[in-house]
Design brief:
268 residues, mainly alpha
């Protein structure tokens, strides 16, 4: 009777990583739900309101004490930027505490902060996006007078807005819209719905600066959709942040050139 042939056992082979079902599939299971998302948005709105009221009160008090006129306090960058910076700082601090203390996880890891290769290409993409949006906006109807046109009236105002718009706003907006809202909503309703919803909310956030000009708000929504697509395609919040930074930096650089270093601006 012949012995059964026993094949030589093969050494353990490393198992291949499971591929995503589709190249554009987002992370399927974020570590947080929509409750955390809405709480983050609520904290942001409440903090911006509270710090805004405090900043306006302090500015008016200082103006009265110094017997100086401070026109348009509510939309003065020297009042708004510190208030918004404080509100954004509070939000980031609370999120950092939540992820680190309750989930025992670094905040960046929980939000999908993965540094992409060739980061300069993402910044360049943002610059090209800004150029395309500026070119396209010339063919769209635009109100003669928008609130944002009167927010910058001095070089200091321009520098404050540019610094905040490049260094602070893109980071916090990406955390809110692409770090929290997109993955949580994609888990519940699908990535396409999440992309559309986050883009519309992103446009609504900027609508007040544009006096509700529908064409300009639609462009901002398109920018939001492109930023979300980058987040979706590369599964990286850092990638969409780099594009956002390049986009805002290009817009402020163009404004600085057009106004000769924020020296030729509309009077407040």
């Amino acid at each position: 009777m012949t012995e059964p042939v026993v094949e030589n056992p093969q050494p353990d082979q490393p198992q291949p990583e499971l591929l995503r079902p589709w190249a554009l599939s987002p992370e399927p299971r974020p570590l947080f739900g929509m409750g955390v998302v809405w709480l983050a948005f609520g904290v942001t709105v409440a903090a911006m309101f509270i710090f805004g009221v405090l900043a306006v009160s302090v500015a008016r008090h200082l103006a009265a004490a110094n017997h100086t006129a401070l026109h348009s306090v509510a939309d003065n960058p020297r009042v708004l930027v510190p208030a918004q910076f404080a509100a954004y700082g509070l939000l980031v601090l609370l999120l950092w505490r939540y992820f680190g203390h309750y989930l025992r996880l670094p905040m960046g890891l929980a939000l999908g902060w993965r540094w992409p290769q060739k980061a300069w290409q993402f910044v360049g993409t943002g610059i090209l996006m800004a150029a395309a949006v500026q070119l396209l906006s010339r063919w769209l109807p635009e109100p003669q007078d928008m609130p944002i046109d009167h927010m910058i009236s001095t070089p200091l105002d321009g520098l404050l807005m540019a610094g905040f718009g490049v260094l602070v706003a893109p980071l916090v907006e990406e955390i809110l819209f692409r770090g929290l809202l997109f993955p949580a909503l994609a888990r519940r309703s699908g990535a396409v719905v999440a992309l559309a919803a986050s883009s519309m909310l992103f446009g609504a956030l900027h609508a007040s600066q544009l006096a509700g000009a529908w064409a300009q708000v639609a462009l901002i929504m398109l920018v939001g959709a492109l930023l979300t697509f980058v987040r979706w395609q590369w599964h990286s919040l850092a990638a969409s942040w780099l594009v956002h930074v390049g986009y805002n930096a290009a817009l402020f650089a163009a404004l600085a050139v057009q106004t000769h270093g924020f020296t030729q601006l509309a009077p407040r």
